[in-house]
Hints:
Blueprint: H1 6-9, H2 18-30, E1 34-41, E2 44-55, H3 58-61, E3 63-72, H4 81-95, E4 100-103, H5 110-118
Parallel strand pairs: 3-4
Antiparallel strand pairs: 1-2, 2-3
Amino acid sequence: MLADDEIAxxxxxxxxxxxxxxxxxxxxxxxxxxxxxxxxxEGTAMGCLQLxxxxxxxxxxxxxxxxxxxxxxxxxxxxxxxxQMMEAMIAKSRARxxxxxxxxxxxxxxxxxxxxxxxxxxxxxxxMKINLI
Length: 133
């Protein structure tokens, strides 16, 4: 699912670097502030994401939750799976006492931006990244 569209397909390559994905999985699994979630139906993956809890100094030392790698199987989009996934992450973040739940989405993913806005996410900041490798 990580490479199910044109944007991600150019970035993800499981065939040539599976060891790197396995190492990342192991690191995430070992970190109590990181969790990978997979939604499945009868053993078939429908969606996945990563939830990370980040301690911070801003907002009086508040914790921030961050969601990344949100994917829903292309054939299952529009059925409410993504909404269920995000509502579950909002609930987990609240239960953890987080001040905010943040996410980023590629500027080219206009449908995703509308989806997140419908769930109450506000495009309040301009995110910036620098590629290091």
